[in-house]
Amino acid sequence: MNNEPKVTDDAMYRLLREGNVDEFNAERSKAGKFDLTGCDFRGVNLRGINADGLDFSNCYFRQADLRGLDLSGTILDGASIHGARISGARFPDALSADEITLSLVHGTRMRYRK
Predict the structure, then answer these.
(1) What SS3 string covers 33-62?
(2) Could you tell me the pLDDT band of residue 1, with boundaries at 50, 70 and 90?
């Protein structure tokens, strides 16, 4: 299993990586299928993204700006948020506060409650 975060050529991923959140939100419904699992969002500002229904499994959000995001409808299993800015962010109910804190402080990958 490769745990390295990936930087892909996927057009939707590139929009987010380059900070084009408004364009991502506008193109999202037209884009069809796109894969963001395991992607590297290190240091990316994702504020304002419509994250509902996105699969961020195994993504790397080190020092990303997630402030104010509603992530409650996303999949974050295996994702890491080490050093990210998370003030006002709402996380999925399946993630405990301890799990989020461990990832934020130590960079562990978040695990969903069974």
Answers:
(1) CCCCCCEECCCCECCCCCCCCCECCCCECC
(2) low
